[in-house]
Amino acid sequence: MLYHFEYLPAGLFNRAQVRLQEFSDSAIIWKRGSFLRKNEHIALLHQNKDTEMVVKVQGPRPENILFLVHEVFEALINESFHGVRYDFSVPCPDCNNLMKRDPHMFTASMIRRALDLQAPFLQCLKYFHTISVGDLQSIMPPDTTQDYDIHLAHAVNDLMEFEQGKTLDIFISYCELDAPKDKSNVIHPEDVKQELLKENYKCYYPEAGKKYSTDLMAKSLIDSSIFVAFISNNYVSDQTCCNMFKFAKTTLRKPFILVAVGPDHEWKKSALGLLVSDVVFVNMIDSKKSVFANKMEELLGKVKEIYSVEVSNESPPCFISYCWKNSKDAVELGTK
């Protein structure tokens, strides 16, 4: 999200940094920027010009962090910086879905104008996508009762999609050198994938020999529940594999399962090996097809163990959390 201020008063940005301090990484904060982390999201808050500020977020629901930052600035302006005017821009949803690095930005003023004129669509000027004005309204920070109704409707739809299990269960990460074309006498990552599919787990499996966008793989990883890595000497020597593993473990903090493959355990001496030195792994070192069933049973046991926390049937289908300050009782007592 990009903010354009007519005038950005001294102190507004830094006071916002202070209010967001609980989500800040103290090692990565400076006068004109902050690195934020909340749940499985990471964000960059940066004042890149005297009158311009950008907020970039990665995570399963980036709009949650965007709305949080927006609310902080709105509150500060209402409290101490009356009269400050700004417009903000949101990226084209289709550009985001296609992982475009330079998405078209729709300004909030244009979207509001389209709503006032009851225009059904707006067009992305960079890639000529046709976007529903209602969809654009749903990704803007809510400001009116109608906005809140739109957001609530989308939240209900998201809950329904979640119930239908549209997210991935397992992200499978491996080095292509550990996936030979001749699968006759080795335990192959694809064999593991097929067994997981038989157990009705939805898997992301990058096929060997094909090129995949790093952004697309990262998005699939964010959407997955478990990260399964076929760690080996080849894996720890592959920078792409190492980066993906660190992103899953350190940044997203995904539950993960290690499957050790290859001829030996030399990978334990690597930097990545030291990172997981205390992790119990499924040992498929130099394993043959004859032991595949036993090793697969062990792997499935670990997957089921991660999924073992079940919600009681007596639990309500939806839990609503809110601040007392926004409750009916608080409003009746005079809060705003």
Automatic annotation (TrEMBL):
It comes from the Eukaryota. The keyword DNA damage does not apply. Transmembrane segments: none annotated. Keywords: Repeat. GO terms for biological process: signal transduction. InterPro entries: COR-B, Toll_tir_struct_dom_sf. Residues 2-136 form the C-terminal of Roc COR-B domain. Pfam families: COR-B. This is C-terminal of Roc COR-B domain-containing protein. It comes from Mytilus edulis (Blue mussel).
